[in-house]
Write a structure and sequence with these properties.
By secondary structure, the protein is of the alpha/beta class. The chain has 27 helices and twelve strands. It has a six-stranded parallel β-sheet, sandwiched between helices. Strands 4-5 form a two-stranded parallel sheet. The protein has a two-stranded parallel ribbon with strand order 9-10. α8 packs across α9 and α12 runs antiparallel to α13. The longest helix has 27 residues. It is globular and about 95 Å long. The chain starts with 6 loop residues before the first helix and ends in a 7-residue tail after the last helix.
């Protein structure tokens, strides 16, 4: 490579034995460092490609590493002396089978190497993430539907409180996190702290009571309008029953609550929320009183319904665990019948195998002498345990050589179970074992203005060091090539459009989209910007429509270069509805989607009459009804 490594990069490249912690921000050249360090190990005869493991976050990153290493190996083969040729030729031949892969790919490799110890079929197939999520979604839908049909009162209550779709999604979210952390349903239940939940509940009720008592004292204020004083008088008359009920709610945290009491309390809290929001403290509220009223409303929104479930805590806790147990059983049965594993199975079973089999663990430790893990800020506790099982040997030459590379600022996969705290905890553990730490602070990708903004913003975010695993913020600095910034922009500023979104106002996305459209419209009209020179980047395209509409309202033409994923397209949903109905003829929701699609073209009115006259499914299979009654009404367009 033509550019010489920085001093910090050289420390990493030349590190040979012992643990190593590398902090590498965006644009710090970490891919180059990983490749150069691996090649350095080969150059110095410290190991071969079959003794090195490189873990990347994506298959794309692994492929890029393989391609870079392949070019360097070809150079080594071409330039090698006769006595070195056999070694470098062997390394080049080993490259296609080298353990340069994702954490799931590496776990799958371990399971296939030791199928008996891992208790897996040697020819198992792996479900990709999309397929696994889809199957879990279908099984959860099926479980909820069957229990409701059987008259499950607790599930019916939960569905009424949260909505069936919301409950299903929440169940799947908890279930998927449980599996990502390597927990069984029993272990998940053991993690629950009922006393802590009840304590938080009591604190919320104490705070609510304090706020409501403050409302009573507002009549002593001098600058209140007559209209608001009348509202306060009405509130004082309504308050005694509420105060009595509030004390009863506090008692519920000390003793079991039956279902009738729970429903009664839920109804009462709903009435209280209605009283605060509209009847007594709604409408125009004096400016000085607004903060207190807003706090009360926000607190009630927090209690209903999410926190309120703790009132019926023991029964709901046990019941939800039963639901998870049944969902997990159905999912495991599905996979076993098809001899498949999902990504979480790969990690859990690999860890379990290494825990149980000392001989396998020692053999893997001897075989894989060097482990390098990229994007470590996006790992979790289960993955950390796997690495510990492979590396925690006494400090001997060629052992305990774990290198982790990461940047807490770039941890974005918490929704998948990633825990940024793991980076800090692992770093401290490795340093306590004699490891070294190197910070790659130079950023060769971003402009100086952008780097300055990033440093300013993340300095504030890292003040809460517990949220980032106790890691200290390391400011970046522009990377220099021949004494000048590698990505110089002249003097282009960074502007931060900080958008205020009122709690009771329009959705935040709409407010932000409008603010951005106004800003760009002014830039075009006043500063001569061209729409074709403007790019708007999104973390995800879920809400891109709001931005499109805002831009077009202000006369700014725009083109979306990428849209929703394949499985979100309506045509795909129509086909899936057909398949779901063919699989389960009782799935009337899927049938309704099929009939509403262009395949049949029924309108909402047709579906309504089919539903009220015996059910959509029954009428769909009734040839006489379908061809005479519906067609006679002119409702069936085509069939």
């Amino acid at each position: 490579m033509s550019i010489r490594p920085t001093d910090a990069q050289r420390l990493v490249i030349e590190h040979r034995n012992g643990p190593l912690v590398v902090g590498a921000g965006a644009g710090a050249g970490k891919t180059r460092v990983l490749v150069e360090r691996l090649m350095g190990l080969l150059d110095n005869g410290l190991g071969g490609l079959d003794e090195v493991v490189v873990i990347t976050f994506t298959r794309k990153a692994a492929t890029e590493l393989m391609q870079r290493i392949e070019l360097l190996l070809e150079d080594r083969v071409a330039a090698s002396k006769p006595e070195e040729l056999a070694f470098w030729t062997k390394q080049k031949n080993l490259l296609p089978a080298a353990a340069i892969t994702t954490i799931h790919g590496f776990c799958g490799r371990l399971l296939r190497q030791y199928p008996l110890a891992a208790r897996v079929e040697p020819t198992f197939q792996v479900l990709d993430e999309t397929e696994a999520n889809y199957i879990q979604h279908q099984l959860a839908e099926e479980l909820i539907r069957e229990r409701l049909e059987q008259g499950d009162l607790q599930l019916d209550l939960l569905c009424n409180l949260f909505g069936q779709a919301t409950l299903r999604d929440a169940m799947l979210n908890v279930y998927q996190r449980m599996r990502a952390w390597g927990l069984s349903v029993h272990q998940l239940g053991a993690q629950h702290d009922t006393e802590r939940v009840n304590r938080e509940w009591r604190q919320l009720l104490d705070q609510l009571e304090q706020y409501l008592l403050e409302v009573e004292s507002l009549e002593e204020w001098e600058n209140l309008t007559p209209a608001f004083r009348r509202k306060l008088s009405a509130w004082r008359r309504a308050w005694p029953p509420f105060a009595e009920r509030l004390q009863r709610l506090k008692q519920y945290t000390q003793q079991p609550v039956n279902l009738e009491e729970y429903e009664e309390a839920a109804e009462w809290l709903g009435l209280l929320q209605d009283a605060v929001s509209s009847r007594h403290l709604g409408g125009n509220v004096p400016r000085d009183v607004r903060p207190l009223v807003s706090e009360i409303r926000e607190l009630l929104r927090e209690i209903l319904p999410g926190k309120f479930i703790s009132l019926y805590e023991p029964a709901f806790h046990t019941y939800l665990l039963q639901l998870f147990e049944e969902l997990d059983g159905r999912y495991q049965e599905y996979k076993q019948s098809r001899r498949t594993l999902d990504y979480e199975d790969l990690q859990v079973r690999a860890c379990d195998m290494l825990r149980r089999h000392e001989a396998v663990r020692q053999e893997c430790r001897r075989r894989y002498r060097y482990l390098m893990v990229d994007e470590y800020q996006d790992t979790n506790g289960l993955q950390r345990e796997l690495l510990q099982l492979l590396t925690q040997l006494p400090h001997e030459p060629g052992t305990n050589n774990l290198m982790i590379v990461g940047d807490p600022k770039q941890s974005i996969y918490r929704f998948r179970g990633a825990e940024v705290q793991v980076f800090g905890e692992t770093a401290r553990d490795l340093l306590s074992r004699g490891g070294k730490q190197v910070e790659l602070q130079e950023n060769f990708r971003s402009t100086p203005a952008l780097i300055d903004f990033q440093n300013w913003l993340f300095t504030m975010l890292f003040e809460d060091d517990e949220a980032v695993g106790g890691m200290q913020f390391q400011p970046a600095k522009p990377g220099l090539i021949d004494g000048s910034p590698s990505a110089d922009d002249g003097d282009v500023p960074v502007e931060w459009l900080l958008t205020h979104c009122p709690r009771n106002g329009p959705p935040a996305r709409e407010v932000e989209a409008e603010r951005l459209a106004v800003y760009l419209k002014q830039a075009v009209d006043r500063h001569g910007w061209r729409c074709g020179d403007i790019a708007v980047l999104f973390r995800a395209l879920s809400n891109v429509k709001e931005y499109e509409q805002a831009l077009r309202r202000h006369g700014l033409p725009c083109v979306v270069l990428a849209g929703k994923g394949l499985y979100d397209q309506q045509e795909i949903k129509d086909v899936l509805n057909v398949l779901q109905y063919l699989e389960n003829r009782r799935n009337e929701l899927a049938l309704a989607g099929v009939l509403r699609s262009p395949m049949f073209g029924l309108d909402d009115r047709s579906l309504f009459w089919m539903a009220v006259q015996g059910g959509i499914g029954a009428n769909f299979h009734d040839e006489r009804y379908r061809l005479q009654d519906v067609r006679q009404d002119g409702l069936l367009q085509r069939a």
